[in-house]
Amino acid sequence: MASILMVMGMMIPVHATLLPNYVIYDKLGLTDTIWALLIPYVAFSLPQGFFLTTSFMSSIPKELEEAALIDGCGIYRILAIIIFPLMKSSIVTVSIMTYLNNWNEFMLAITYLSSKKWKTLPFCILEFTGQYSSNYAVQFAVMALSAAPALIIYIILNSHITKGVALGAVKG
88 — phi, psi (to 5°)? Predict the structure, then answer.
């Protein structure tokens, strides 16, 4: 039942909660704080990570754990030596997908933040737009630089991402 509720969280788009969250954050005094961004980022990344990780964990054969128990391993040693190394690609996949989803997020930052203290990078790009004219060369350069870290991370860890998604999607 808990897994069904967790996966149901993937059905609600983060932008559908902008107004209710803003009202709640305003009453709690959380607008213009880092918590105004962290709470929705975690809340909406958790179901996706939960779904990918549990589907990957269900593909790990139980015989590996049983063999380790017979050999005298305790639960923590089984986790450290057998389960976590097998889950490396799944953990990397969830981490990268969460990072990529939240790195370029703009709507939450512009809704909940007003001061320069917690501005995110896409929110700062907005400052390169003039009221009557814009320097498009500078805007495109800044956008390319802001996309570069996500692109570099994706290129470096592409094999882990592909392997983690493929292994978590197929139960064998």
Answer: -55, -45
**Spatial separation of the C-alpha atoms in residues 76 and 90, rounded to whole Å:** 19
CA distance 140 to 128: 10
The burial class, CB within 10 Å (0-12 / 13-18 / 19+), for 22 is middle
Q: Which of these CATH numbers, 3.20.20.140, 1.10.3720.10, 3.30.70.980, 1.10.287.130, describes 2-169? A: 1.10.3720.10
- Measured distance CA(46)–CA(40) in Å, rounded: 10
Are 1 and 86 in contact, with CB atoms under 8 Å apart? no
pLDDT digits (tens, 9 = 90+) for 21-74: 999 999 999 999 999 999 999 988 988 888 888 888 888 888 888 888 998 989
- Dist CA 21 CA 129 (whole Å): 28
pLDDT digits (tens, 9 = 90+) for 80-98: 988 888 888 888 888 888 8
